[in-house]
Amino acid sequence: MVRRRFSMLVSIVLTSVLLRAADIRDAPSTTLPGFVLDEATIVAMQAAMSDGKVTSRQLVEGYLARIDSIDRSGPCLSSVIEMNPDALVIADAMDAERSKKGPRGPLHGVPVLIKDNIDTADRMQTTAGSLALAGSRPARDAFIVSRLRESGAVIIGKANLSEWANFRSTKASSGWSGRGGQTRNPYALDRNPSGSSSGSAVAVAANLVAVAIGTETDGSIVSPASVCGIVGLKPTVGLVSRSGIIPIAHSQDTAGPMARSVADAAALLAVIAGVDPADAATAGSRGLPDYTRYLAPDGLRGARIGVVRSSAFNLSDKVLPVLESAIGVLQRAGAVVIDPTDVPNLGKTDEAEWEVLLYEFKADLEAYLAARPGTHARSLSDLIAFNRDQSEREMRFFGQEIFEKADRKGPLTEAAYLDALRKSQSLMREGIDAALSGQRLDALVAITNGPAHLTDLVNGDAYTGGSSSPAAVAGYPSITVPAGFVHGLPVGISFIGAAWSEPVLIRLAYAFEQAARARRPPQLRPTVDLSPGPCSVIGSLAHAPTSRVVPGVFK
């Protein structure tokens, strides 16, 4: 659920090994009898199934074929950590039910991929990518999984992720897990997919599934969505249940939709949002039965949008043309743009947020492990011991210093925790609220993050800047939409709003998406073309931004 903020050198040698250029090919298209699977939307799938042009079984079979072709072999995207052995059986049942009773709703028979930190009480495992939980299975479905099953969706498998949602080491490579290996960015296979919802983003981008579920604590939905050229929606904390999801921090954790379009993300959000008695944060959930009603092509007309250009985001000048282009789209669509817009308190919550995450991680994870049946690690100390014992498999590339720091924290009654929580949440909520109310804004916009950096298992992630923290720390919603490219690598723009403003953000993001038309499907290229010169990849690193590093802080 967390993405990294540490700037590191890139290992060119390791990158060349990862390429395996002989296995790389352009993305194959998939045409089923009577239906084209590539870039297919939920609405198109439903129409085709209702008209008898395609079945849910055929959709699942088509995606399974693509997964076998480009995820398990060929370019080996490694985005899917485990397939659901019962997916075809479920699809057949949904087809039979449709023929007798009609569809349950928009997701009936639609294949969905879920991140491997979300519990399923079936024949699949839930491991957060860690070998420490391999072989053990939860006793019950996560609340959102139950909602998906009730909607008629077909859970096709589990997505790979940054192990433990990027909360094990500051030297980690996003998209790597002990169970699933390194996920690759489909726009350039030597580039990183970001994280921690790496597999969810890559699978959706590469047309391996219709839609996916990701999770976020700070950036882990919107960041991989941005660098993989898709839509990612991080809801208000409390809109979507977290019960049955392996946690980092209850004050910031949430699950959310990842899709190729705002319309598909809106349809998925309606299914997973709602009150869950097992998650007290959802008691005030303002989940709606239909978010697609807010999909208005003219949704930007008359809207007041504030552009945030804060140096706290640490973004490279390389993304400025994308931002300027996006501003032009907003203005031509009829929005009133206030540029720049100041958001008080940006950059003032890093240390407090870090303290909150460490405290809550230990408390929340140990509560989750204690409630999970079977023989497995029961505490953070147990996990630390397991990783040391299995260091050749689990710590070959990076350690577990975050685990060790969190394990030294005390209970959530300590003053250090309570003070940090109060500071981080109040400062960021006050800042966003002040910016919105002061200019009578409908939303803020900012570049989501920089383009994908080179994957480097030796040194770990290289931070390229990002704007996820304000909404993450405040617990407010944000949605990222494809906005453009830098050297062929996708860059998204985020719409950030007040608590429970998902309908507004969906309206604005949809109108922007329809006007910008910025998404282009990936072609599974081995690397970014930075010609001329054999040293162009190395030369490109000269423009990598220097990270604003706060000691002991990352996201």
Descriptive keywords:
555 residues; alpha/beta; Amidase signature (AS) enzymes; eleven-stranded mixed sheet; two-stranded antiparallel ribbon; 17 helices; 34% helix; disordered C terminus
Describe this structure in words.
The protein has 555 residues and is α/β, with parallel strands linked by helices. It has a single domain (12-543), classed as Amidase signature (AS) domain (Amidase signature (AS) enzymes), CATH 3.90.1300. The protein contains 17 helices and 15 strands. It has helices at residues 12-19, 42-50, 56-71, 87-101, 143-151, 198-205, 222-227, 262-272, 320-332, 350-371, 380-389, 391-394, 401-407, 415-438, 469-474, 502-516, 536-540, and strands at 31-32, 35-36, 80-83, 111-115, 154-159, 176-177, 181-182, 211-216, 231-234, 254-259, 304-307, 336-338, 443-447, 478-486, 489-496. The strands form three sheets. Strands 3-5-4-8-10-9-14-15-13-11-12 form an eleven-stranded mixed beta sheet. It has a two-stranded antiparallel ribbon with strand order 1-2. The protein has a two-stranded antiparallel ribbon with strand order 6-7. Strand 6 and strand 7 form a beta hairpin. Helix 3 runs antiparallel to helix 4, helix 10 crosses helix 13 and helix 10 (350-371) packs across helix 14. The protein is globular. The chain starts with 11 loop residues before the first helix and ends in a 15-residue tail after the last helix. The model is unreliable at 4-25 and 534-555 (pLDDT under 50).
